[in-house]
Amino acid sequence: MVHIRINDLENYAKENHVPIMLKDGIGFLTDYIKKNNIKHILEIGSAIGYSSIRMSLVSTDIKVTTIERDDIMYNKAKENINAFNLDNQITLIHGDALDIELTDKYDLIFIDAAKAQYIKFFEKFKHNLKDSGVIVTDNLSFHGLVEDSSNCSRNTKQLVKKIKKYIEFLKDNKEFETEFMSIGDGISISKRK
Ligand code: SAH
Ligand code: MG
């Protein structure tokens, strides 16, 4: 039996520079899940399994499917999910989310993977969203760089441009209405109109 606590995951992420959700961001998300009685969740970007574990711990009848493409992250997530005894609640898929075909419909889809691909993730997985479901996206502020990236490298500026494009895509969207929150690293909540 491996003894592990949420705090250990947070420390591991800090030491190894794994970009897990910020404390108030994950706090907001787990409250939202509780308040809205959300049971069936899809997450794009597992990293070490931190957010999927936190969401699963809200209630024993919550099921999370989470996708991770990086081998090291995938293995770490598997180990952590197992250590928390959450294999019955969390389905971890190894692969690039853009190559994975899912047939299930979810109450909540959480996009927290490669920022340059946010529009692609949204367009692909909206077909897996229940009519009443929500798509939540993380890191729309990108450590404040979306507001000001004047001192950044060309690569970072390019990424900021992609995030701004995603924000515009959400603002102009005909199908979805989006609320933007300055919680954590910037979170959006999109619902069908
Ligand atoms: N949701 C996690 C943090 C995810 S960090 C948490 O808060 O605990 C982003 C992760 O997305 C990284 O581990 C990265 O490898 C993964 N990722 C990026 N692009 C991806 C893709 N196209 N498909 C699957 N995983 C992807
Ligand atoms: Mg994130």
Average the pLDDT over all residues and give the rounded result.
96
- The number of domains: 1
CATH top level is Alpha Beta
**Which structural class do the helices and strands define?**
alpha/beta
Describe this protein's structure.
The protein has a seven-stranded mixed β-sheet with strand order 3-2-1-4-5-7-6, sandwiched between helices. Helices cover 36% and strands 22% of the residues. The radius of gyration is 16 Å and the shape is globular. The chain is of the alpha/beta class. The model has no long low-confidence stretch (mean pLDDT 96). S-adenosyl-L-homocysteine binds next to helix 3 and strand 2.
Main attributes of the structure:
single chain, about 190 residues, alpha/beta, Rossmann fold, binds S-adenosyl-L-homocysteine, binds magnesium ion
SSE order and pairing:
Layout lengths: L5 H10 L7 H13 L4 E5 L5 H7 L6 E6 L2 H13 L6 E5 L11 E6 L6 H8 L3 E9 L16 H18 L4 E6 L5 E6 L1
Parallel strand pairs: 1-2, 1-4, 2-3, 4-5
Antiparallel strand pairs: 5-7, 6-7
The structure holds S-adenosyl-L-homocysteine and magnesium ion (MG).
The site of S-adenosyl-L-homocysteine has 19 residues, from α3 and β2.
